[in-house]
Amino acid sequence: MSSEEFLKTILLSVAEVIIVVDMEGRITYASPQTLKIMGVKANELVGDKLWAIPTLRDPGRMEEFFIKLKLGKIYKKREIVEIQKGSEKAYLHIYATPLSDFSGFVFTFRDVTPLVEAYQKIEGLNEVLRLMNKILRHDLLNKLAIVRGYLEISLENLEKEKIEKALKTLDEAVEVIERMRELEKSIVSRETKVVKLREVVEKVAENVRKLGVEVEIQGDAMVLADDAIYSVIENIMTNSVKHGEATKISVGIEKEGEFCKLTIADNGKGLPMQFADKLFTEGFSYGKSAGTGLGLYIVKRVVERYGGSVRAYNKGGAVFEILLRTKN
């Protein structure tokens, strides 16, 4: 076996992608593993610039890394880059080593997707803990203190009004706990499934109708979501009734290309559009019926996790438009 054949055998046995570039960043060699890890055949890369790899999500970042490497402006010759192989996103760890004759660099790409996703999940859990701590320390404890105060006064005077206020505040405390559970579910869960959207809307509408609110539903679509989609629709409808004082809610479901547009409109007093940029932010609440400030924040977090988007505006009453990915 010649030395060249021996070297090729070794390169084939390595799990990582190995790419050699010259000092201009032009690829002179790419190992066969590029097809499996990067989704591109090795012979299609030779002759192109390193940052021209077609599956790179951010070519500019790769080019910047190479330039700094070439100029000796970085101490750690490591980087994490993202690639897109069809519908799959992957994370690759890069390690760069200069060639012995300083005519270029050897880049080793290792798939670290499971590690990065695990780190992202930990970050999400940390966010859940931070929010839960905040809610427990402020909203929940405050509401329970109010309940205690009303009950103590009512015990002395047997006042019905005080007892009713205590029960109302207790209900709000329970709502806080439910929102915490929804928030945890929205961040921790990662997998989506095919969901029949109309069935979800109908189920939520059943409870809303019990409040004396008329709910009309038109259309249907199969979307990619999970059980947290119930919280999304419930939060919006609850917002219409509790804060908008709506007596009628209209729901429309229609296909728009690869997405489904879910429109939830009410005949209430509308949204405080002077705070439009804050509607979906954590902790924002408004008016006499202000709640925890988590309802619409949860809506945004969940919808974005599905790969969709949400917007709100006024047209008579409040209107929420949600775009959800559909089953191909």
Automatic annotation (TrEMBL):
One Pfam assignment: PAS_9
Domain Histidine kinase: 135-328
Catalytic activity entry: ATP + protein L-histidine = ADP + protein N-phospho-L-histidine
UniProt organism field: Archaeoglobus fulgidus
Protein's name according to its UniProt entry: histidine kinase
Keyword ATP-binding: yes
Domain of life: Archaea
Membrane topology: Multi-pass membrane protein
Record-level GO BP terms: osmosensory signaling via phosphorelay pathway
Keywords per UniProt: ATP-binding, Kinase, Membrane, Nucleotide-binding, Phosphoprotein, Transferase, Transmembrane, Transmembrane helix, Two-component regulatory system
Gene Ontology MF terms in the entry: ATP binding; phosphorelay response regulator activity; phosphorelay sensor kinase activity; protein kinase activator activity
Primary subcellular site in the record, as a coarse category: membrane
Domain PAS: 3-47
One Gene Ontology CC term in the entry: membrane
Keyword Iron-sulfur listed: no
Enzyme class: transferase
